[in-house]
Design a protein that fits this description.
304 residues, 11 helices, 0% strand, disordered N terminus
């Protein structure tokens, strides 16, 4: 009995190609693939950052030395090529466009997410339509705005026609980003609010929107970037007059159109680079203010 208990089966040596080397080779392949993917991701990030830094640096190097006091005169003429009227028109166009499209885009997203079923055909149809509209070239929107707002509604080339055209252009962006931000809010927030007796409308505005606001403002930043950089659609709808728009029916140019016009003439290329610097500053300020507002809203929602 003692001999039987002490006897142990002899362990067989692992043969080449047995069960142990194969997992080691598989682990080595996984590590090699992971290293290759990390290297590709880092290379892509460095390439993107390098291109961005090159473009911004080129604009700053070519534009900052050409920032002259004459560019900031109140009125535009052929001697000073002032960008002040175009800059003010740009800010006015941004505010008017967002005033038109934000209530429509956010309201549509709230309805699709909060008031319809998750598997609704209406939601799928609207989503496909929004994605299709997002890929349409801006020149097509410009032709649409010219035929609809300028010609059919007899608004002429005006700030109002340009802002309405831009609102139609960025409405899919606002709606899709808002929809994704609302879907990212956990359902437990809604269930807890309903459990405490709050209605759907109060739940949406007091519980769901505050944590979704950073994502919504990210869509607003994208929309502002497209508004600021748009020129093709505004040439057909807002016009190219280098004066400050005092009413919604006035024709005027934005900074992007101003850059296009003066660079196309071939006489004010340096001034066009200086205008690009001012445009970068405006975009940076808008993005910074939007990010600060998003952090403040998100912080206020957490405190509540």
């Amino acid at each position: 009995m003692k001999q039987i208990l002490c006897a142990r089966p002899s362990a067989k040596p692992a043969a080449a190609g047995g069960p142990f080397p194969e997992p080691a080779r598989h682990l080595a392949r996984q590590r090699a693939a992971s290293f290759a993917l990390r290297s590709l991701a880092r290379l892509a990030a460095l390439a993107t950052a390098g291109i961005l830094l090159f473009l911004v640096g080129h604009i700053l190097v070519m534009g900052v030395p050409n920032l002259k006091p004459s560019l900031f005169a109140w009125e535009y003429n052929s001697e000073n090529v002032s960008l002040v009227p175009a800059a003010l028109n740009t800010l006015f166009t941004i505010a008017l466009t967002l005033l038109i499209c934000l209530p429509l885009g956010i309201g549509a997203a709230i309805y699709l997410v909060e008031y319809t079923g998750r598997g609704s055909r209406l939601v799928g149809l609207v989503r496909i339509t929004a994605e299709t509209l997002s890929g349409i070239p801006s020149i097509v929107y410009g032709l649409f705005g010219m035929l609809c707002f300028v010609t059919a509604l007899h608004w002429g080339r005006s700030i109002l026609a340009g802002a309405c055209t831009l609102a139609v252009m960025i409405l899919p962006v606002i709606m899709r980003t808002t929809e994704e931000a609302l879907r990212a809010v956990p359902d437990a927030y809604r269930e807890g609010s309903f459990g405490l007796g709050a209605g759907r409308l109060r739940t949406v505005f007091r519980i769901v929107l505050p944590p979704a606001m950073p994502g919504i403002l990210a869509g607003v930043i994208l929309a502002v970037g497209r508004i600021v950089g748009e020129s093709a659609a505004l040439i057909y709808t807002a016009g190219t007059i280098p004066e400050l728009a005092r009413t919604l029916g006035d024709s005027a140019r934005t900074l992007s159109v101003h850059m296009y016009v003066i660079s196309n003439e071939g006489l004010y290329v340096k001034e066009a680079y200086a205008t690009a610097v001012v445009l970068l500053v405006i975009v940076g300020l808008v993005n910074t203010l939007s990010a600060a507002l998003a952090r403040r809203i998100a912080g206020g929602g957490k405190e509540e």
